[in-house]
Amino acid sequence: MTRVSVARELRQLLRLQGFRRLFTVRLVSQAGDGMFQVGLATLFFFSPESQGTAADVAVAFAVLLAPFTIVGPWAGVFLDRWRRRQVLVVGNAVRVGLTLTIALIMLTSGVGPWIYVLALVNLSVNRFLLAALSAAQPRVVDGPLLLTANSLAPTLGAVAAGLGGGIGLVLGLLLEPGRTKDAMSLFIATAVFGTASLLALRLGKDQLGPLRVSSPADVRNELVRVARGLVDGARYVWVRRTPGQALLVMGVHRFIYGVTFVASILIARNLLADPSDTQAGLATFGTILGASAAGFALAVVLTPTLSPRTGPHRWIGLMLLVAALSQALLTVTLTQATMLVGAVFLGLAAQGTKIAVDTIVQRDTVDGFRGRAFSLYDMLYNAAFVGAAALAAFTLPDTGYSRVVFGLLAVAYAAVAVCFTRFGARTAGDVPVEIERTADRPAG
Fold first, then answer.
1. Which PANTHER family match (predicted)?
2. Shortest CA distance to 42 belongs to which of 191, 185, 162?
């Protein structure tokens, strides 16, 4: 696929009204999420009160992500039974209330236990929304354009999150330390989430699926059906082979990536900047995130251009080798320049892998199981990061830099690339009839 054909397909995508409207909701919602997450990151990792040790960073990530690792698998069953348009409308509206409440508490009382509780709920809702966006995309895009859509939408969504985060970073650098600075980006994010909720109303009520909508049921029976649906979804993607293996590789990649991300926070705060100057550490980390975002943007160009020649399977292997290169570079020397170059390579690898995995899961999963597949995706995504944070707490010094650790991460990436390329399934397997029938099992 040439760059000309990519541009042509992008124009074709933007002519699809349903795609444009869903894409707009994604961009606005993720921009608000970028502001929200940067506000939390500034509070947890770059405020004068934070200690900035490997253990502190690991605990913060565990608090933010572990609960949704438990809740996440249940979301897909509802995405396969609730109108996904309504999920986008109500979910963003719920985030308005949660974010506004957090901002008011921070402004009036400072950081307390309720901040952590509400942040957990808020981030859990966001993961639910991202799963809904991915599950809904095949309903608004024609099959031949799905690869380009998977390159464009998530990557530019990540760019939108980066822009939102950039606004939050600028506010954090310009405003004087204090409660006003901590709350400001959250107040802005509240307005953005409200806009995303209103924009979702432009989509048709049933436009995003699923084909079957549940009837009301009591809570106990619904939980039983959720558990059964989760088991059905896991059996389906495993027997189907390609989506199950793609999800497994993405989980391993996320685990390795998580160690590097934690190391980047510590390096920016404690090594490349004076540990006592949290503003300088925040600015350094913002630069690293910007380099990573440049890698994300590069992936949106290279993946649809080159991956059709290799296929998504080999493309994932190639991207994992690029990730190995990013880690090997840091074993040679650590400077701000090598950190930025490594961040570009790792951003390219992370987003390039994600685009290909999304395509495999969407292509080889029927609509009745697609929501569950992407909820399992989110579960692995978050569980791997929590595990990585725990590993980083035991293996990284407080400066974040260890040649041995970065060398082992490079070897791990290369080993996964070789194993997946050589032994991974390239074609989807047949699913027994008894498993296929569970896709249409009514919820009520």
1. INTEGRAL MEMBRANE EFFLUX PROTEIN-RELATED, MEMBRANE PROTEIN
2. 185
Q: Tell me whether residue 209 is in a domain.
A: no
**pLDDT tens across 172-223, in order?**
777 776 667 767 888 999 999 999 999 999 999 888 878 766 555 544 666 6
Of the candidates 397, 415, 383, 303, which has an alpha carbon nearest to the alpha carbon of residue 351? 303
Query: Residue 3 in contact with residue 303, Cβ under 8 Å?
Result: no
Q: What angle separates helix 146-174 from helix 113-136, to the nearest 10 degrees?
A: 160
Q: Residue 215 carries which DSSP code?
A: P
- Alpha-carbon distance 322 to 328, whole Å? 10
Residue 69: which domain range?
3-204+215-440
Which of 117, 115, 99 minimizes the C-alpha distance to 36? 99
From CA 344, how far away is CA 322, in angstroms rounded?
10
What's the start-to-end Cα distance of the chain, in Å? 46
For the chain, what is the domain count?
1
Backbone angles phi, psi at 425, to 5 degrees: -70, 140
Residue 379 lies in a domain: yes
pTM of the model: 0.70
Which band of pLDDT confidence, cut at 50, 70 and 90, is reported for residue 73? low
Residue 441 token pair: 């099992």
Q: Enter the tokens of residue 304.
A: 């649809």
> Do 160 and 27 contact (CB within 8 A), yes or no?
yes
pLDDT at residue 24, rounded to an integer: 95
